[in-house]
TrEMBL record:
InterPro entries: FtsZ/CetZ (IPR045061), Tub_FtsZ_C (IPR008280), Tubulin/FtsZ_GTPase_sf (IPR036525), Tubulin_FtsZ_GTPase (IPR003008). GO terms for cellular component: cell division site; cytoplasm. Residues 323-333 have a biased composition (Basic and acidic residues). It comes from Kiritimatiella glycovorans. Residues 11-202 form the Tubulin/FtsZ GTPase domain. GO terms for biological process: cell division. Pfam families: Tubulin. This is Cell division protein FtsZ. Residues 317-360 are annotated as: Disordered. Keywords: Cell cycle, Cell division, GTP-binding, Nucleotide-binding. One of its GO terms (molecular function) is GTPase activity. It comes from the Bacteria. The gene is ftsZ.
Length: 380
C-alpha cells in the first residue's frame, strides 16, 4: 500500500520590521496562534531587546551603530543590504511571510522593500500590512511612507495599507501610546485570525494552494478588515464587515479580483450558519473574483463570532482604461492606464515643404512628419 505523505502545514512567519512592527507584535502576544513563528527586525538594539518577540535580528550595526536610522530610509536600506545573507537565511525556508511595519520612519521604509524583494526572489509569498502615518506627522514622513508603499506594491504579492488616521479615534484624551495601542487593536485581531486560519489545524483550513494562486496573481493592492460580534448578532456581521472603513466602501469592494474570508467561531457553530455567512460574503464580491474561505473553531469563541476578510484589488486606473489599453508593456501587464493623449500639433501634412517636389521613398512621402505617416499618437 502506498504510504500517505505527512500533512505539511505551510511554513509561515509573522515578521515585525522597525519600531511600529515591533510594538504591534509585542503588544498582542496572547493573540498569536501557537506554532506561528514570530520574529522582529530592527536597526535599534534597545527596542529589539525589550519588544518581547522571540526571534530578533539586529540589522545595520555598521551603518547606524545599533541605533535607529533617525527617519532615514536610505540608512534603512543600507542596513538591510549590510545584513543581506543573515536576513535571507532567517526567512529562506518559508512558504508565506506576513509582515507588519509602520512606514514613514527610516528602518521599515528603507529596509522592508528590500526584504520583500529577497523574499520574492526566493519564491516566498508575502503579505504586508503597512501602517501609514497620521496626517499630523511631518510631511517628510508621509512622503517616505508613500514612496515605500509604491516600492512594496511593486514587490509584494499583497500590500494592505492601514492608515493610522482611520484607526485612532479623534478628540479623545488618550496619550499617544494609548492611541497607538488602540489603533493596533484594529489590525491585530485580523492579522491573527488570518494567520490562524492558515496555520492552525482548523476544521476547514484555507486551501493554501488556492490562496497561494490568488496571492501570486496579486498586483500589490489589497484591503482588509475584521470584526467580532455576539453570536446572536451574527445575521448582521457580514454587512458590518463590509462597512468597515478599512475596506474603502463600494468603490474598492467593486474592484475585488479575489478575496478570502476567515471565520472564527465556537465548536457548536452550525453548518447552516456557515453557509449563510459565506454566501452573503460571496454575493458582495463582483464576478469573476476568486473566492476562498476557511473556518477556525475555538473553545473560547462559543458566544462570539470573528470575521476577517482580505480583498485583492484591481489597480484603480484599470477600469477607466477599458479597452483602450495599448502600451503592451509593463503598464499593460499591471493594468495601469497608458498615458496616450493626442497632442494638438498643426497637422498640415507637408508644412514648409508644401511648394517643393515630394521626397518619395519606398512609396512614402518623407516630407510628412513621421508621426502622421505612421498614424502615431503622441502622448503629452
Ligand atoms: N499603529 C501604530 N503605528 C505606529 C507605532 N509606532 C510608530 N507608528 C507609526 O509608524 C511610523 C514609523 O515609525 P517607526 O516604526 O518607529 O519607524 P522605524 O521604521 O523604526 O524607523 P526609524 O526609527 O526612523 O529607524 C510612524 O510614523 C507612526 O505613524 C505603533 O506602535 N502603532
Ligand atoms: Mg525605530
Amino acid at each position: 500500500m502506498a504510504e500517505v505523505p505527512e500533512v505539511n502545514m505551510p511554513r509561515i512567519m509573522l515578521l515585525g520590521v522597525g519600531g511600529a512592527g515591533l510594538n504591534i507584535l509585542g503588544r498582542a502576544r496572547a493573540l498569536w496562534p501557537e506554532g506561528l513563528r514570530l520574529a522582529a527586525i530592527d536597526t535599534d538594539a534597545q527596542h529589539l531587546s525589550c519588544c518581547g518577540v522571540p526571534e530578533t535580528r539586529l540589522i545595520g550595526e555598521t551603518v547606524t551603530r545599533a541605533f535607529s536610522t533617525g527617519s532615514s530610509p536610505d540608512l534603512g536600506r543600507r542596513a538591510a543590504q549590510s545584513d543581506a545573507s543573515g536576513i535571507r537565511a532567517m526567512i529562506g525556508d518559508l512558504d508565506l511571510l506576513f509582515v507588519i511595519a509602520g512606514l514613514g520612519g527610516g528602518t521599515a521604509s528603507g529596509a522592508l522593500p528590500q526584504i520583500i524583494r529577497w523574499a520574492r526572489a526566493d519564491n516566498i509569498m508575502t503579505m504586508t500590512f503597512a501602517v501609514m502615518p497620521f496626517e499630523f506627522e511631518p510631511e517628510a514622513a508621509r512622503r517616505h511612507a508613500e514612496q515605500a508603499l509604491q516600492e512594496l506594491r511593486a514587490a509584494s504579492n499583497v500590500v494592505v495599507p492601514v492608515r493610522n488616521d482611520l484607526l485612532a479615534e479623534e478628540n479623545d484624551e488618550r496619550t499617544i501610546q494609548e492611541s497607538l495601542a488602540l489603533a493596533d487593536r484594529w489590525i491585530l485581531p485580523g492579522v491573527a485570525a488570518l494567520a490562524r486560519i492558515f496555520c492552525e489545524d482548523g476544521v476547514i483550513n484555507l486551501d493554501f494552494g488556492a490562496v497561494g494562486a490568488m496571492l501570486q496573481g496579486g498586483e500589490g493592492q489589497a484591503v482588509f478588515a475584521c470584526t467580532e460580534v455576539d453570536r446572536e448578532a451574527a445575521s448582521g456581521a457580514v454587512e458590518q464587515l463590509f462597512r468597515h472603513p478599512l475596506l474603502g466602501g463600494d468603490e474598492s469592494i467593486g474592484r475585488a479580483r479575489g478575496g478570502l474570508i476567515g471565520l472564527t467561531a465556537g465548536n457548536d457553530f452550525r453548518l447552516t450558519e456557515l453557509r449563510s455567512m459565506v454566501s452573503e460574503w460571496s454575493a458582495r464580491l463582483p464576478e469573476p473574483a476568486v473566492r476562498n474561505w476557511g473556518v477556525s473553531l475555538n473553545e473560547g469563541m462559543s458566544a462570539r463570532l470573528g470575521l476577517v476578510t482580505l480583498l485583492m484589488l484591481a489597480p484603480e486606473e484599470e477600469e477607466e482604461a477599458g479597452e483602450e489599453r495599448q502600451d503592451g508593456g509593463e503598464g499593460e501587464r499591471r493594468g495601469r492606464r497608458p498615458v496616450q493623449i493626442e497632442m494638438d500639433i498643426d497637422a498640415s501634412p507637408r508644412g514648409p515643404f508644401a511648394k517643393l517636389e515630394p521626397t518619395l521613398f519606398r512609396g512614402q512621402n518623407l516630407d510628412e512628419p513621421t508621426y502622421l505617416r505612421r498614424n502615431i499618437r503622441i502622448s503629452r
